[in-house]
Design a protein that fits this description.
By secondary structure, the protein is mainly α. It is built from 1 helix and 2 strands.
């Protein structure tokens, strides 16, 4: 018969109560070095305000990008018209020679 090695009994982790250094009631509070990270659970009003802010940034970004597109299209039209006129003027130069 083979001998089984002696095993240590499984120890359960010890749960320590949080130290009351801060009077903050945030769910998660982590600090190290000079930085601080706070993670809080948003309520319905906070989530709504955050979604409205993200939506506003998205709309403003699309407006800005479409405004840039208008200037790019206008620039392409001007370049195309210049190329068309240059081609027409090149043909006139042949007639004058």
């Amino acid at each position: 018969m083979t001998q089984q090695p002696d095993r240590d009994p499984v120890k359960e982790g010890e749960i320590l109560p949080p130290e009351n250094k801060n009077t903050s009631y945030d769910r998660v509070y982590q600090s190290w070095g000079g930085g601080t990270v706070k993670i809080v659970k948003l309520g319905p009003l906070g989530a709504t305000v955050m979604m409205l802010a993200f939506g506003l940034m998205l709309v403003l970004g699309l407006i800005f990008l479409s405004g840039i597109l208008v200037f790019l299209v206008a620039g392409l039209v001007i370049l195309g018209a210049g190329a068309y006129l240059a081609n027409g003027l090149r043909g006139l130069g042949r007639l004058w020679r």
